[in-house]
Amino acid sequence: MELLASQEDMSQDEALRFLRKMEQSDQLGSFEAAYQTVKYLRQKISDSQWGKAREALDLVKEQSARLLKGQRESSVGNMIRRVMKIIKDEHFSSGKEKTDERDTQESLQKLLLADDDEEEYNQPKENLKESVIDSMCELLSELETSAEIVCANSLEHIQNNEVIMTLGNSRLVERFFKTAVNKKRKFQVIIVESFPNYRGHELAKALTEADIKTTVVSDAAVFAMMSRCNKVIIGTNSVMADGGLKASSGTHTLALAAKHYSVPLIVLAPMYKLTPQYLSSYDQDKFNQTISPHHVLPYNSGEIINRVSVSCPLYDYVPPDLVSTYATNIGGYAPPYIYRLLADLYHPDDYNLKQELNS
Predict the structure, then answer these.
(1) What is the phi/psi pair of residue 275, to 5°?
(2) 42 and 133 in contact (C-beta within 8 Å)?
(3) How many Å apart are CA 212 and CA 154, to the nearest integer?
(4) N or C: fewer beta carbons within 10 Å in the chain?
């Protein structure tokens, strides 16, 4: 995963190009969408005149409506929530001496009450704007180093002579494997090709060039090959609030096979992918995105085209009981612990982002 240049302010042309890309969500990956969202909001907060937390929150809400329009990438909403929490936290901490005890008490109070005094946000605070901008710069730094930190722990998860299965073409997984091999780990990777887009072949090519022994198998061979594997390491689009995950189509089958053979399933998930949403495959309209099925059923297939309806979903929902560990940039966590991370990253009032933006 490549880092995006620097934390320099966005020019007007850069902001316009970013907004155009946001309207075409398939042009942005999770990391780039998250990074550019924070950078864009920081620029707007810096350029605008405000002195109260309520004014800053209203500004973020106004910009968020544009950012979320037609956007399927959950990392965009996650970063909006992070920025809103920064504003609220800096408002309450401004002018106060920060101690661990006070921070703990405030955190517990917010968890218990989960209700803000709207009048409080209208109170001006000294140096609030500077504090918010500084915290957003820290968030950008966290995003920049998230992949590096995840990959730095590769030796904890990959041992010599192991056989590891993965699926599709995740840039983070690719970097994770390359980091391990650069530290003299010797292992073999079995890659599920991910029909119909065959993205597994792209990963296989990249790993082969890095002198990693690689085998590509069809999606139908997952169950047969799983008995030979020591573990499964995959990336994900989102980590859901219940500890499940939203990942590329075929991941659920892979997870079920791993569960059957008691093979650990490790998910590489930087914190910007953690979302407070509770969605599952039962709610396909909100959860999933479908693409043209012409690879599966070509348009020249004759009369059958008019007699069938074919759905080609991009994502699978994988329930938390099929996941062993989430390897994040702040450590490794079991799925049941995800709820606690949510409380640390997002304000409870912002979990339902659409409702909050309309308030």
Answers:
(1) -120, 145
(2) yes
(3) 15
(4) C
